[in-house]
Give the backbone structure.
Amino acid sequence: MIIVMEENATDDQIVAVVDRLVQLGFDIHRSTGARYTILGAVGSRLADLRALELLEGVNKVVRVSSPYKLAARAFRPEGTRIQVQDLTIGQGCCVVMAGPGTIESRAQLESIAEALASRKVRVLTGNVTRISSDPFGFQGLGEEGLRILREVADAHGMATLSEISDASQLPLFERYVDLIRVGGRQMKNFALLKELSRQSKPVILTRGESSTIEETLISADYLMCGGNHQVIVCESGIRTFETYTRLTLDLAAPAVVGKLSHLPIVADPSQACGRRDKVSSLARAALAAGVDGLLLEVHHDPDRALCDGAQSLSIAQFHSLMDRLERIAAAVEKAL
Amino acid sequence: MIIVMEENATDDQIVAVVDRLVQLGFDIHRSTGARYTILGAVGSRLADLRALELLEGVNKVVRVSSPYKLAARAFRPEGTRIQVQDLTIGQGCCVVMAGPGTIESRAQLESIAEALASRKVRVLTGNVTRISSDPFGFQGLGEEGLRILREVADAHGMATLSEISDASQLPLFERYVDLIRVGGRQMKNFALLKELSRQSKPVILTRGESSTIEETLISADYLMCGGNHQVIVCESGIRTFETYTRLTLDLAAPAVVGKLSHLPIVADPSQACGRRDKVSSLARAALAAGVDGLLLEVHHDPDRALCDGAQSLSIAQFHSLMDRLERIAAAVEKAL
Amino acid sequence: MIIVMEENATDDQIVAVVDRLVQLGFDIHRSTGARYTILGAVGSRLADLRALELLEGVNKVVRVSSPYKLAARAFRPEGTRIQVQDLTIGQGCCVVMAGPGTIESRAQLESIAEALASRKVRVLTGNVTRISSDPFGFQGLGEEGLRILREVADAHGMATLSEISDASQLPLFERYVDLIRVGGRQMKNFALLKELSRQSKPVILTRGESSTIEETLISADYLMCGGNHQVIVCESGIRTFETYTRLTLDLAAPAVVGKLSHLPIVADPSQACGRRDKVSSLARAALAAGVDGLLLEVHHDPDRALCDGAQSLSIAQFHSLMDRLERIAAAVEKAL
Amino acid sequence: MIIVMEENATDDQIVAVVDRLVQLGFDIHRSTGARYTILGAVGSRLADLRALELLEGVNKVVRVSSPYKLAARAFRPEGTRIQVQDLTIGQGCCVVMAGPGTIESRAQLESIAEALASRKVRVLTGNVTRISSDPFGFQGLGEEGLRILREVADAHGMATLSEISDASQLPLFERYVDLIRVGGRQMKNFALLKELSRQSKPVILTRGESSTIEETLISADYLMCGGNHQVIVCESGIRTFETYTRLTLDLAAPAVVGKLSHLPIVADPSQACGRRDKVSSLARAALAAGVDGLLLEVHHDPDRALCDGAQSLSIAQFHSLMDRLERIAAAVEKAL
């Protein structure tokens, strides 16, 4: 941590800041320049930078060390690969994970899974608790939904992925789900992250819609602090002034996360744009930008979906997108 | 709901849209203009506007009715007053609610409460679960903290206010807390809101940092759907490109909420700016803008606070602020 | 325009609104529903929606017609092609336009142009007025720069593109420049747009960093109102809370602009990310998302560039990117 | 400037960075810690931080010195007072500056000025070039408008304030206008700022709608670099996700600008909210927050204003607001 004093800071002020830092357990290196005094502070604790900035005579406080450690590239320079069944995520391929937004029935999921399996999709997705602003609408199938997900996936040799909405669901998720997703709204639910850091399934951490990449990696660190290092970052769009699409997919994220962190990164174009007619171009762009996976909402009858039909691809649209993704994957040398 | 068709929509397209709406249970009124055909759709269900906009030939879909009902001004034109003990919120006064960000010990809370009581503050605040990005820092006192809050408040004839972080805490909150706060990060945690709608304590609903006022009122509606209409809206800042302060307090919110809704609105300048040296001017501004209450973080030794000391007023700063608020309250004819 | 009255609007209020609309020259269609009265207003003038919303008893005012006309897809459903010399933009190809951020000298531009020409780049770009926050830094070569641009481009059979910073530069631009770019900061400089609408060169209109796509198309309309319909939209990033990159490139924009408008759209990944190490993945993504062109900043010695070197590709990086773009272009069936 | 190297940076990388900095003219102080090497660089030139961050082995580059100098508090710790006729801005008072958004006619301005003068408003405002997205609407009176402004103001002993839209208008503004306003859209029009820095009238610099306070002060620096130090900062709202109001007035800005800079700050609630029914509460809040002045749009017949009527107070609303402001001014000990 570096504390830059004001140009006109008095010696008393400087001494007071040094005292405060020593109290907080930091070792101090004082460097007196022609115009500024700069204090370097080294220690193991996280200090509240804002509190230090309020001390008299302080101009600016700058964190030198990264605010995340376990998620940082330096922690594992060669990169992390996540193993799900016989599938590897984070390794020269782009894993397609697809399914309905919310599981409605066994028949629904079977129709969809069949189409997905025909294109060699290896991860079947589907949520079972609906997070909706309508208190009287469809609320999801709960455990029954997870059981259906598991059985349909098994029938096709697929892994399962579902979004957890509450720590109390964890035992169920451990039984039925291979990849546990944390939604963007929960990205800073640190109590949930802590619970998840102690179990052994890989976790997909979705960037919150008004969060930065750094904040996302801080949450990833939290998720890893209990020993589970199987974390995948998911870019699913950030809120901007643009309203035509639900959110704006940040396609610099794959390259930025790849530089700052060793974790794989996947993209969710369906959630990002919220409109099925824009999913295809975003999915192609994400693949070309270098993501390690794509999450796609697919529905066999989107106009009659109980929820989020607007952002679900029809089976025909899914096939057409897969054709295009296959050509791009070959061009960018990623296995699909 | 109004569906505006494209200028060049074909009759087949129009008929298909009408059919779809009828299927969804809407009554339709078709109005054919010189350039556009416009469909009016009346029904009781919420439709997914985005899904309708994707139908062929549709240009735009506009919701006519308000997306919230119970929270709307029309539901109770005379305005809502919340009763807490013998205190009324939402009625020509500005209720100051103050205390430490997080309760650290009985001694701490007693020191602070004494100073507050000397200025006739009637609501004592303090959190017991710390929501922090540091997995190894102070995590709050939990139930012990609530018990301290209750006892210290009772000793001074004050009501209690604390932030709930999880539905599982509800029984404890019902026992110890008079005003239950929902933090901004939980504003769209609909499962929690639904739980809270079924209990009887008043709830302070904090606007999320990237939420609009309309979205806040939709959450308020959710909170009221179980029968508890004792809801207070809290403006505690929204995220903007400005980084000097943590968030930007939206001081048009009191007037806007007052027009759109019958619910009282309070402001939290401490959380909004995150720096104690800017709290005073925002608190004064909020009072002049017409809020029904102010939430203030106060600490007897902010430099040694276990958390969020940077945004806590010292006792001396609190007294000085109260002096200034008293003068402004008189000028704007609000009882403090 | 549709005016939705409040549920409890009185008849006097409705009549007053009708009178006001008639005064403003609108024809009115009144539709009295069970709960709401809705007024349809048809007329040729643009009305101030906010002013109408302030009338007593009005709940909401909704514009039915598009706020832009000439730029709307309906105006030219088959799409617009822009002709520059023998080059066509907006027609199954992705035109690469490249050069230094700012022209520094003839030698500089010649070095760069040679590399570009070797990859069949057909449009040479370079600015001559530097827009910088440093009042004492390099300010650009002005007319001398335009002359160099023209001559170097001619030597390689390339077209020229430069950004105009002021209407007074127009005569110079008409002499030397084939494609006139309007920067994002000038997107709402309506006086400049009006001047440009009266000349005959094609214009590249850059979306402002906090503008929506709709606002961009409104500016495009302005640019076309004088008769020059040769307009290209440029997505060059929007401001978000993310700070690692300068801006966030919105790669839903190609699909959205393609639906709403007949105008071609190009992307500028260099300006969007502001860091050369992220330009390549964004450029690939933009191509896969379907843009009609790419603007790339390339410098023969970026570490010694007088400005914006950080976002300029080196010659080697440019070649490597072109290799990758060529493969993706083949996969998405676009001529590069 | 401080350059923090990566933990695993090699010595060759460190030497390369040092060499680059020396080349750029910096003096270097190298500090080798247990984990990081940190380089302090002192020099007179502005370096491109992003370019340095791209060097191999660099983790982070932090600017130590303020990016603005002349506008910084340290430059004139006692604060700046601006003299306009016999009026002082920035000195324990809150100067009300009011008038129509755009001057429409002499009769209009006289009606309004009379009402303003009756409340001792000392600065008459009015624009003469309309910046509008409607190419066919009213465009402002130009020089004729400035002449009317001057004459009507003189008749009431008022000073004049108008917004300049182009450097070419400067001679006219020097003749007729006492306070020249730069609008938010022009805040980064550095060419215009440079022109204005060479003339002698005080300038009101409006913060851009997506600009930070720091960026505003950088523009203020630009405005002062030619010798004119008579600059007033104007907070007129920043763009946020909230859409009910046009922009969100940042009322931490008075306290923040007061700490960072010696320049006076005024607020423009009319432009910020864009709706006359919300202007009053924002104006009161701004006064309580400590602004040195208020800009108010007032119209004798807002429903018939040629433009921006929605955000203009009627004469009756203006009187009512002044009554309330007078009481608050007394409470906060500011002369109105």
